[in-house]
Amino acid sequence: MLRLALSGASRNGAVSQIVTLELPDEVYAVLRQQAESVGISLSEWIAVALERQSGLLSQSKTEAEKEAARQRFRRHAGAIDLGYPTGVDNENIDTDLIRAYSEDLT
């Protein structure tokens, strides 16, 4: 078991509280990995997860908060150009499938 104290400044200027959680090591490891994968602290990740679970995040956000969220989202977006078409109407799909299935039969 691991004890974890959560605290932090609120995003909307409200007073924040300190909460102590006792978590099994396995749960702590998973939560820490999830927080690291999105680039935030474990405390912030847990606080956001609890806010979402309670429905508090459905309240309206300021324009600055919305823009910050959009920017965080856009960091993960991108485009890849493979140098050849990859759409569903791609004629090469049929050729690739024929080649793949014919190799399995030989």
Uncertain stretches: none
Question: What string gives the helices and strands in order?
Answer: EEHHHH
Strand fraction equals 5-15%
**Structural class based on helices, strands and sheet pairing:** mainly alpha
Question: What value does the Rg take, in angstroms?
Answer: 23 Å
Determine the N-to-C terminus distance: 56 Å
The order of strands across the largest sheet is 1-2
Average pLDDT across residues? 75
Quick structural overview:
This protein has 106 residues and is mainly alpha-helical.
Structural account:
With 106 residues, the protein is mainly alpha-helical. It has a domain at 2-59. The chain is built from four helices and two strands. The chain has helices at 25-37, 42-54, 63-75, 91-105, and strands at 2-6, 19-23. A two-stranded antiparallel ribbon has the order 1-2. Helix 1 crosses helix 2 (42-54). The protein is elongated, with a radius of gyration of 23 Å. The N and C termini lie far apart (56 Å). The model has no long low-confidence stretch (mean pLDDT 75).
